[in-house]
TrEMBL record:
<feature type="domain" description="Amidase">
    <location>
        <begin position="28"/>
        <end position="477"/>
    </location>
</feature>
<dbReference type="InterPro" id="IPR000120">
    <property type="entry name" value="Amidase"/>
</dbReference>
<dbReference type="InterPro" id="IPR023631">
    <property type="entry name" value="Amidase_dom"/>
</dbReference>
<protein>
    <recommendedName>
        <fullName>Glutamyl-tRNA(Gln) amidotransferase subunit A</fullName>
        <ecNumber>6.3.5.7</ecNumber>
    </recommendedName>
</protein>
<keyword id="KW-0808">Transferase</keyword>
<dbReference type="GO" id="GO:0006412">
    <property type="term" value="P:translation"/>
</dbReference>
<dbReference type="InterPro" id="IPR020556">
    <property type="entry name" value="Amidase_CS"/>
</dbReference>
<dbReference type="InterPro" id="IPR004412">
    <property type="entry name" value="GatA"/>
</dbReference>
<keyword id="KW-0648">Protein biosynthesis</keyword>
<dbReference type="GO" id="GO:0030956">
    <property type="term" value="C:glutamyl-tRNA(Gln) amidotransferase complex"/>
</dbReference>
<dbReference type="InterPro" id="IPR036928">
    <property type="entry name" value="AS_sf"/>
</dbReference>
<dbReference type="GO" id="GO:0005524">
    <property type="term" value="F:ATP binding"/>
</dbReference>
<feature type="active site" description="Charge relay system">
    <location>
        <position position="83"/>
    </location>
</feature>
<comment type="function">
    <text>Allows the formation of correctly charged Gln-tRNA(Gln) through the transamidation of misacylated Glu-tRNA(Gln) in organisms which lack glutaminyl-tRNA synthetase. The reaction takes place in the presence of glutamine and ATP through an activated gamma-phospho-Glu-tRNA(Gln).</text>
</comment>
<dbReference type="GO" id="GO:0016740">
    <property type="term" value="F:transferase activity"/>
</dbReference>
<comment type="similarity">
    <text>Belongs to the amidase family. GatA subfamily.</text>
</comment>
<dbReference type="Pfam" id="PF01425">
    <property type="entry name" value="Amidase"/>
</dbReference>
Length: 501
């Protein structure tokens, strides 16, 4: 072992085990991934900033600790990268926005800190839609991400850089954020596992806010076991985040191994058939979803019909609540305290010029929408009503889980689309979140896993989603592992890598 190609094909779990056992050094692993980044970034654009000096220093520290016989963390030597929404001390963090260009945080967020404490090696920061607002990574003043499965297509959003980097073997694990599907949708479009934990399961300290009652951090990986390994590091109460849950962190890897070995033992998988009849569901997506249900049945599950009566109202509800929270959270960017500042003659003009120059069109659109729904004249008709519907949606899921253990659906209604094809139609992009938004509104854990590919060229990935009750991550991971054990989709390489080979 040791050739770059062999190193890049190992899972995060495999890398951690090989480094712990002395078969690989963390330094040679880091160098292999940095070489991959250098080779692919000119065509991929997944990274906003690469941190080779930091990565090699962290890798050397892992090697020194192993030679000294010290205990190694669960991610010791594993190369990871962070969506640029996560605060990293001493490393520029922009949240994909020109208004934060050049901002170097003076503190370490919970995510970077916990990964470092677990021995992970940070390769850099990953491209994203500005402040997490988008589905294609095209809402950015920077270069948009290209999908490694088809470079002319989008990688999804807003965690598109995270998805592209993991799929292209430019990092072994990545961290994304999910406000309405921003981990799961790009995972679906790039043939990955993407896990959105229960709201509060992972700290939000150091994750730049979009919509605080919806945002949640989670891992993106090539295999279910890698996502479980990362979640075990990230999960747990944080005194710096009042919304984090003070609940025991179970053994997620044991749940994965049990699911892969033993199947699902009569677990009931609920399906809301009405959602499958809505306009816009791609035929290949529908076919791969049905095939995934068959795999889950082969693993011992039983598929049952459920109803989610307010499913069709989720997108509208989300875009009232998320924009309202965004208009409040983004008020802090004024050109005075940090980030970009436009020159002007007065304080008011400084505010106006900074926000005009620093925010992109989609961010401005959502701030305006959020400000409107929070006006005294509009509050009851929009924000107040949306909060009531959010409660109804959460009750729908609670009632559904009285009949089933997990809920299955497609992750995204369509596979990836060409770059630029939908950039002028924001409503069409909003509607692509119809399967993912409900879990955010209800605060539930959800996972997207590879389910196959489109039948016509270009051959594009398709994902299937599983949603569980609050804190049911072990059941989700076990079911995902049972599905993964019955197919080989996750082992396939993108065309970008095949061309390079």
């Amino acid at each position: 072992m040791g050739a770059a190609g062999d190193i890049l094909e190992l899972s995060a779990r495999g890398l951690a085990a090989a480094i712990r056992g002395g078969e690989l050094s963390a330094s040679e692993v880091a160098r292999a991934y940095l070489e991959q980044i250098d080779a692919l970034e000119p065509s991929l654009h997944a990274y906003r900033r690469v941190t080779p000096e930091l990565a090699l220093a962290q890798a050397a520290a892992v090697d020194d600790a192993r030679r000294a016989g010290q205990a190694l963390g669960p991610l010791a030597g594993v190369p990871v990268a962070l969506k640029d929404i996560f605060v990293t001390e001493g490393v520029e963090t922009t949240s994909g926005s020109a208004i934060l260009a050049g901002w170097i945080p003076p503190y370490q967020g919970a995510h970077a800190r916990r990964l470092a404490e677990a021995g992970a090696v940070l390769l850099g920061k990953l491209t994203m839609d500005e402040f997490g607002m988008g589905s294609a990574n095209e809402n950015t003043p920077f270069e948009p991400v290209h999908n490694p499965w088809a470079l002319s297509h989008v990688a999804g959003g807003s965690s598109g850089g995270s998805a592209a980097a993991v799929a292209a073997r430019s990092c072994a694990l990545a961290l994304g954020s999910d406000t309405g599907g921003s981990i799961r949708q790009p995972a679906s479009l790039c043939n990955l596992v993407g896990l959105k934990p229960t709201y509060g399961r992972v700290s939000r300290h150091g994750m730049i806010a979009f919509a605080s009652s919806l945002d949640q951090a989670g891992p993106m990986a090539r295999e279910v076991g890698d996502a479980a390994l990362a979640l075990g590091v990230l999960a747990g109460a944080d005194p710096l985040d009042a919304t984090s849950l003070d609940a025991p962190v179970p053994d997620y890897l044991a749940a994965v191994d049990q699911g892969a070995r033993g199947g699902l033992d009569g677990a009931k998988i609920g399906v809301h058939r009405g959602a499958l009849e809505l306009e816009g569901l791609d035929a290949d997506v529908r076919a791969r979803f049905e095939a995934s249900l068959t795999r889950l049945e082969d693993a011992g599950a039983r598929v049952v019909d459920i109803e989610l009566p307010h499913f069709e109202h989720a997108v509208a509800t989300y875009y009232v609540l998320a924009t309202a929270e965004a208009s409040s959270n983004l008020a802090r960017y004024d050109g005075v305290r940090y980030g970009h500042r436009s020159a002007a003659d007065s304080l008011r003009q400084t505010y106006e010029a900074t926000r005009h120059d620093g925010f992109g069109p989609e961010v401005k659109r959502r701030i305006l929408l959020g400000t409107f729904v929070l006006r005294a004249e509009s509050y009851a008709d929009y924000y107040g009503r949306a909060m009531k519907v959010r409660t109804l949606i959460a009750r729908d899921y609670a009632r559904a889980f009285e009949r089933c253990d997990l809920i299955a659906s497609p992750t995204a209604p369509i596979p990836s689309w060409p770059l630029g094809a939908k950039i002028d139609d924001p409503l069409a992009l909003y509607l692509l979140d119809m399967f993912t938004i409900g879990a955010n509104l209800a605060g539930l854990p959800a996972i997207s896993i590879p389910a196959g590919f489109t039948s016509a060229a270009p051959r594009l990935p398709i994902g299937v989603q599983l949603i569980g009750p609050r804190l049911a991550e072990p059941a989700l991971l076990g079911a995902a592992a049972a599905h993964e054990a019955r197919c080989d989709w996750h082992r396939e390489q993108p065309q970008l890598l095949e061309a390079r080979a």
